[in-house]
Amino acid sequence: MTSSYNNSSSYSSSSYSSSTTTAPSSSSSSSSSSPNIYIPIRGSERYVSVSSDNLPSVKDVIEILRGEVAPLDIWLQIAIEYYKQNHIDDFKTLLGIALDPAAEEFYKDSKFERIAMLNAMASYYTQLGNVEKDKGKKEDYYQEATYRFTKADRIDPRQPLTFIGKAALLLAKGEVDRAALNFQQALSASSNTHNSNTSTTLPLFPAKLGYSCVLFNKGEINKAVESLQKLLIQNPVSASVRLGLGYCFYKLGKIEAAKKAFQRVLEIDLDNVDALVALATIHTNQGDIDTGMKLIVQAYELAPNNPIVLNQLANHFFYKGDYTKVHALAQAAMSNTDINQIKAEASYIIAKAYHATDKWNEALQNYHQATLKSPDFYLAQFGLGQVYLHNNDYEKAVGCFEAVLEKQPENYEALQILGSLYKVSSQSKNIEKIKNVLMKTTLLNPNDSSNWLELAQLLESSDVSSSLDAYEKGINLLKKDGIEISTEILNNMAVLNHRKGSFSNAEKLYLKVIEASGHKLEDFKAVNITTTYNLARLYESMNKFDQARQLYKGIIKEHPNYMDCYLRLGAIAKSEGNSYESGEWYKEALNIDPNSPETWSLYGALHLSNEQWNHAQKKFEQILEVVNKNDPYASIALANIYFNAKYQYPEKSEKYLSIAESFYSRILSRHNDNIYAANGLGMVAAAKNNLLLATEIFIQLRESAIDVSTISVNLAHVYMSRNLFDNAIKLYEGSLKKCNNTKDMEAIYGYLSKAYFLARRYQECKQILKKAIHFSPSNLALWYNLALAIESQSMAILEKPNKSLPEVASVNREVVYARHLLMNLVSQKTQKPNYDVKRCKTHLLSLTELAKKVGEELKSLEDLETENAKKRESAAVEAKKRADEREREEKEQEEAKKAKEEEHQRMAEEYRASWNAARADKEREEKDEDYGSAKKKKRGAEESSDEEYTVDKKEKKKAKKEKKKEKKEKRREKRDKKKKEKQQKEGKEGEEDDEEGEEKKSRDSSDQEENDQKDQEMDKQEEQKDTSKPSDTKDDDDDLFGSGDEL
User: Fold this and answer.
1) Helix 487-500 and helix 529-541, axial crossing angle in degrees, nearest 10
2) Given this model, what pLDDT does residue 24 score?
3) Which residues pair with 38 in a beta bridge?
4) Do the beta carbons of residue 544 and residue 572 sit within 8 Å?
5) Chain centroid to CA 746: how far?
6) Is the pLDDT of residue 14 over 50?
């Protein structure tokens, strides 16, 4: 195969045209608009022109491509032309030869082209799998595609084209999440390629289009729309993009926008079946049956086997009452697809036909099949429930209609039926459930706005979205009836949007309420005061602090005693880091109400955030002494202050812990469900070294409040104290995943790194410390801990009995890095460093000594490796010498054996000829009657001599065996003597190298087996020699071949 790429200058001139002019540029030769493909002639500026309109035989193409060692992109270009012209076998043949291992080795520098070829083949098999109905064959095609994508990844695992191909394959297999990941990787790889200014084609458009498809399938419709609209700017005439937008708009309920999108698709691609079907569905749903039917017929003419088209036609004939055609078309749709949703639709249509003709059993079977194929198909569930209801099977009917409500919570028919069914089913005693259903049946009369508004008010505290929906419907009905919307309703809707996070809608509604009052926002009239305050809270949630501050101050100016505004102004100042201003606002609030527990709590929390423990203590004590002695928030805050005081005053630790414990216990005695008080008791137990009690408390708390990360962290601390490092690590890691506060994350990283360190899991410790350093590079304690982790890991590796050279080399680099870190820390001039400078210097000295040991160990291992390499090389040379000697001996033995066999064959032929001649003589003698009597006499004499000959022959055989045995023993003794001398000679080498000793034992065993085999062959040859030795008498001949009569 390789030689075929070297020389081939002869090819059929009838299929190609050569030119003596300069070869066209790569851009022109690869242009899809050019009718010709140009193959450059090696070593010249000439080229061969291949007409893409009249492609020659693939054999001729292969001959010239090989002969001229054509670039792989030309191979691929010609292969694609074959594919376009439906010469599939030629397409596969050409790519198969180009991707042959020998060719790949020859074109090893053409990585991108080889990847493109592998992707082309993989895409071909993906298409085959998509249209294949047989599941086994489909899976085989997908496996073929996967195999080629894998080969492409081995060449370059970051090639965007491969990611796109794999994503398309995964989408075909229904693996949407993995497909999304591959599309994202394609976009990332394309972006990196673009940034590196390479010439690689950047498939950003297909990757983005594919990712938009994934977003649609995952239900993220708005994101899909946003992505598709960006693509539309890049390519306004892409039918695929506009088709996707149409589907998205339809899913979002923007029917007219979807309609326009599908119409635009048909302007670009008149025969787009998907657009025809989608547009037909819209027209049919809008009541334009004729137009919808025309579009379906047009789609059917283009794709008579399209299952969606067939289902649409079946549905059309169902409404016309032509059930025979319904069955035929729906069955055809089912047999032409593997997609369960389409099959479910077909089964549902068949079930409807049976249902309409009162064939209940057949209807039940087909409805059931539809629900099995698509459990979310609520229309099939509804039909199935109706059949069960007809059969008086109420329990199963309830299950079906409840399944409908899971997908369609506002389904009026299902609610109405369930309201009656519950009363006669096993749910009759479930009053709350019936109440919920009956509340929903207030929608029985959808034109009564009071029902919607009442439902909206009922759902305000439990279901914000449903409440808003109900308000919208009620308001629309009010507008339809010409009734003015009250400001109370609008304000409620604004609050709901605020809670939902729809800040823009909330703002519009708040402003609308203020406008409806007849006053401006700046008037701050009492009629609008609540709405204005809510608007300010909205701006605060949107981080628009200036606008919020302006409204709060405006309210205070007109209504000086509005306490909440002062508190909110203090909270804004605190969030902006202005503690002084925050405190001033709290003081203003206290001037209005000196006994406000909320104000004192916020004021105390401000001091706590600034670690002003004494000031905070006074604020919380004020609450307990003046306002409410049982206030739980103030009590817990004071308990926490006393608990933390033990760190500042270790000599009073026991006293402060006792005070904190009394606070926590007092709170629990009044509020036994207060998890923060229980958490405090766990902390006190741990501080008193009662670790089992602390563990029990935190475990119980965690079961009831798993989302409170503080409890998990405290439990991890206890596990650390009990040396249960693995348990602590799991809890720290879980808390880290739930944490979104940078300061808290930094602290947990510190806890986790310590846990890994104490567990002697130094590699993970280093990784966590590096992540913590990423968050806080100025924290010098983290760098110090990283150096200690490196030191400990290095010492652990050096203590291992079996160390590899790469391990020690890595340790050497790590130790150098750790010394560098500690030297920098020692030289720091920070006034209050957060690490122990003396210990830092001690560890620096230790690392210096360790570096020397590592260097010595590294040199020792390098010397040993050099020596072992020499031994391995020597052993390899010796092994090759022995193998060559063995091969020569075997060859000589084979030649000798062959010569003996030929000699034996020649002798046998001579004996056979001699015997035939004797046989002929005997036959002539028997014809002579006189000779017959003489023959009898002679035979009698021969028989008597035969008895003597038999005895003599046995003695000869016995002597031969004895002689043969003696020869065999001499050969064995001679061989054993040589073996012993050889072992003595090689004994020293065996002591120096255990591996060579093992190899020598194996070799000796092999030699022994060869010698035994040689003995057997020599014995056999001697037997053959004795057997084939010519006899001096006629009796010997008879003994060899048998008598003539017997033959």
Assistant:
1) 20
2) 41
3) 49
4) no
5) 29
6) no
Round to whole Å and give the CA distance between 1007 and 1001: 10
Percent of the chain with pLDDT over 90: 13
Distance CA 301, CA 418 (A): 44
By CB atoms closer than 10 A (0-12, 13-18, 19+), residue 997 is: middle
pLDDT, tens digit, for every residue of 423-449?
567 765 554 565 577 577 665 667 767
Domain for residue 519, yes or no?
yes
Rounded Cα distance, 371 and 345, in Å: 10
Which strand ranges, in their side-by-side order, compose the sheet holding 17-19?
A: 17-19, 47-51, 36-40
pLDDT given for residue 388 in this prediction:
92
What CA–CA distances, in Å, run from 716 to 67, 186, 722, 736?
Answer: 72, 41, 10, 12
User: Which tokens in the block code for residue 19?
Assistant: 């030119």
Residue 610 binned pLDDT confidence (cut-offs 50, 70, 90):
confident
Give 980's pLDDT tier (boundaries 50, 70, 90).
Answer: low
The total of other beta-carbon atoms located within 10 Å of residue 403's CB is 21
Helix axes 1034-1041, 837-927, angle to 10 degrees: 120
Q: Cβ of 1017: how many Cβ atoms within 10 Å?
A: 13
Domain annotation covers residue 865: no
One-character DSSP codes across 747-815 = HHHHHHHHHHHHTT-HHHHHHHHHHHHHH-TT-HHHHHHHHHHHHHHHHHHHT-SS--HHHHHHHHHHH
Highest mean pLDDT among 124-138, 413-427, 1023-1037: 124-138
Helix axes 239-251, 255-268, angle to 10 degrees: 160
Which helix (H) or strand (E) segment holds residue 38: the answer is strand 36-40
Contact (Cβ atoms closer than 8 angstroms) between residue 843 and residue 791 = yes
Per-residue tokens: 166: 């794999």
Main-chain dihedrals φ then ψ at residue 629, nearest 5 degrees: -70, -15
Copy the structure tokens of residue 961: 């065996």
Residue 681: count other Cβ atoms within 10 Å of its Cβ.
22
- Helix 613-622 × helix 597-609 angle, to 10°: 170
Polymer length of the chain: 1047
pLDDT computed for residue 531 by the predictor: 87
**Residue 299 one-letter amino acid:** A
pLDDT on residue 943? 54
Q: What is the pLDDT of residues 513-526, one digit of tens each?
A: 888 877 777 777 77
Q: Is residue 527 part of a domain?
A: yes
CATH number for the domain spanning 561: value is 1.25.40.10
- Based on the structure, what is the number of domains in the chain? 1
Minimal CA–CA distance to 181: which of 169, 192, 194, 167? 167
User: Any idea of the CA torsion for 373, 377, 380, 382, to the nearest 10 degrees?
Assistant: 140
Domain for residue 501, yes or no? yes
pTM of the model: 0.39
For residue range 233-267, list pLDDT tens digits in order.
888 888 888 999 999 999 898 999 999 999 999 99
Tally of CB atoms within 10 A around 60: 17
> Given this model, what pLDDT does residue 23 score?
40
The predicted pLDDT at position 1024 comes to: 54
Give the tokens for residue 21: 């002019």
Structural domain that includes position 523: 486-575+604-610
